[in-house]
């Protein structure tokens, strides 16, 4: 059973190429794979298959084919706790990079399906440069950013007000005018945020960020189903939208710095784009006896 390990701004993933959709991604297997002591260690798992094959094998409902073609690749994403999330912005860059590095996809521009819908991607550097490279550079069209209104959460030792944002998955992006990069870095994000369950019945990813200055912000995140991560792609899009809104703008480009690096986000009226790096650092084989023992 082949696997790869990759990350996008240090938000890390185990990639499972599974064209035939043979793998049963049970909660026990995903949590073990993502465990940093008894597994490979990761924030999430990306199964790589075509949409049609996932529908045929019952992993996805047939309605997904209303939005994504059967031949399109589909990022079957799991959080480290085994839960399924609609979308992962760093994951989709690593996913697209893997497709090039493996030779499974030769086009520089193609569509990746997700539970949040189709996400067109562009692998920069052309097919040859992208092909075998360890480091990739990918732009993802993230769809329309929907504002859900304000809410507050207890996070990082204080109650903060933020903007609820749907980027395919739910976010609460809290711009704190009292924070600079150093104060943000000093926050304790080990405790899970307490948020409004009426507003976010399926849970929420919570971002804390500095106000927009010179076209950039600093952000940290506590992810639903994972905990604090060193980056969250959908979170950077939510953060950029909240920072712009707080500055009185509804569109624009923002550089978002996270503990694991930096990405570029552009927010428009009907679409947002996310551009950033992907690193594929290891390939290997999982022991099938270990996998089977997890059930
Ligand atoms: N790290 C991801 C987001 C992964 C899903 C998230 N934890 C959720 O449950 O919504 C990203 O890069 O966007």
Automatic annotation (TrEMBL):
<feature type="binding site">
    <location>
        <begin position="223"/>
        <end position="224"/>
    </location>
    <ligand>
        <name>substrate</name>
    </ligand>
</feature>
<comment type="function">
    <text>Catalyzes the stereoinversion of LL-2,6-diaminopimelate (L,L-DAP) to meso-diaminopimelate (meso-DAP), a precursor of L-lysine and an essential component of the bacterial peptidoglycan.</text>
</comment>
<dbReference type="InterPro" id="IPR001653">
    <property type="entry name" value="DAP_epimerase_DapF"/>
</dbReference>
<keyword id="KW-0028">Amino-acid biosynthesis</keyword>
<comment type="pathway">
    <text>Amino-acid biosynthesis; L-lysine biosynthesis via DAP pathway; DL-2,6-diaminopimelate from LL-2,6-diaminopimelate: step 1/1.</text>
</comment>
<feature type="binding site">
    <location>
        <begin position="233"/>
        <end position="234"/>
    </location>
    <ligand>
        <name>substrate</name>
    </ligand>
</feature>
<dbReference type="GO" id="GO:0008837">
    <property type="term" value="F:diaminopimelate epimerase activity"/>
</dbReference>
<feature type="binding site">
    <location>
        <position position="11"/>
    </location>
    <ligand>
        <name>substrate</name>
    </ligand>
</feature>
<feature type="active site" description="Proton donor">
    <location>
        <position position="88"/>
    </location>
</feature>
<keyword id="KW-0413">Isomerase</keyword>
<comment type="similarity">
    <text>Belongs to the diaminopimelate epimerase family.</text>
</comment>
<comment type="subunit">
    <text>Homodimer.</text>
</comment>
<dbReference type="GO" id="GO:0009089">
    <property type="term" value="P:lysine biosynthetic process via diaminopimelate"/>
</dbReference>
<feature type="active site">
    <location>
        <position position="88"/>
    </location>
</feature>
<protein>
    <recommendedName>
        <fullName>Diaminopimelate epimerase</fullName>
        <ecNumber>5.1.1.7</ecNumber>
    </recommendedName>
</protein>
<feature type="site" description="Could be important to modulate the pK values of the two catalytic cysteine residues">
    <location>
        <position position="171"/>
    </location>
</feature>
<feature type="site" description="Could be important to modulate the pK values of the two catalytic cysteine residues">
    <location>
        <position position="223"/>
    </location>
</feature>
<keyword id="KW-0457">Lysine biosynthesis</keyword>
<feature type="binding site">
    <location>
        <position position="79"/>
    </location>
    <ligand>
        <name>substrate</name>
    </ligand>
</feature>
<keyword id="KW-0963">Cytoplasm</keyword>
<dbReference type="Pfam" id="PF01678">
    <property type="entry name" value="DAP_epimerase"/>
</dbReference>
<feature type="binding site">
    <location>
        <position position="205"/>
    </location>
    <ligand>
        <name>substrate</name>
    </ligand>
</feature>
<feature type="active site" description="Proton acceptor">
    <location>
        <position position="232"/>
    </location>
</feature>
<feature type="binding site">
    <location>
        <position position="169"/>
    </location>
    <ligand>
        <name>substrate</name>
    </ligand>
</feature>
<dbReference type="GO" id="GO:0005829">
    <property type="term" value="C:cytosol"/>
</dbReference>
<dbReference type="InterPro" id="IPR018510">
    <property type="entry name" value="DAP_epimerase_AS"/>
</dbReference>
<feature type="binding site">
    <location>
        <begin position="89"/>
        <end position="90"/>
    </location>
    <ligand>
        <name>substrate</name>
    </ligand>
</feature>
């Amino acid at each position: 059973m082949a696997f790869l390990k990759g990350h996008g701004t240090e938000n890390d993933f185990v990639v499972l190429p599974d064209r035939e959709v043979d793998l049963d991604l049970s909660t026990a297997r995903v949590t073990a794979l993502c465990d940093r002591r008894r597994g490979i260690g990761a924030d999430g798992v990306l199964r790589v298959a075509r949409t049609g094959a996932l529908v045929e094998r019952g992993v996805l409902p047939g309605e997904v084919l209303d939005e994504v073609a059967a031949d399109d690749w589909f990022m079957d994403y799991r959080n480290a706790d085994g839960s399924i999330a609609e979308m992962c912005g760093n994951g989709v860059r690593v996913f697209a990079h893997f497709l090039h590095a493996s030779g499974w996809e030769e086009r520089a521009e193609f569509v990746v399906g997700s539970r949040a819908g189709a996400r067109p991607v562009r692998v920069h550097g052309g097919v040859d440069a992208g092909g075998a490279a360890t480091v990739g550079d990918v732009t993802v069209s993230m769809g329309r950013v929907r504002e859900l209104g304000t809410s507050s959460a207890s996070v990082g030792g204080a109650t903060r007000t933020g903007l609820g944002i749907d980027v395919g998955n739910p976010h609460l992006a809290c711009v704190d005018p009292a924070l600079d990069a150093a104060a943000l870095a000093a926050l304790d994000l080990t405790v899970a945020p307490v948020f409004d369950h009426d507003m976010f019945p399926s849970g929420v990813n919570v971002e804390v960020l500095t106000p927009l200055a010179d076209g950039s912000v600093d952000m940290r995140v506590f992810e639903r189903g994972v905990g604090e991560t060193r980056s969250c792609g959908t979170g950077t899009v939510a953060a950029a939208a909240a920072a712009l809104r707080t500055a009185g703008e509804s569109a624009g480009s923002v550089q978002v710095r996270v503990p694991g690096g930096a990405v570029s986000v552009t927010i428009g009226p009907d679409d947002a784009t996310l551009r950033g790096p992907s690193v594929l650092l290891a390939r290997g084989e999982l022991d099938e006896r270990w996998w089977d023992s997890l059930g």
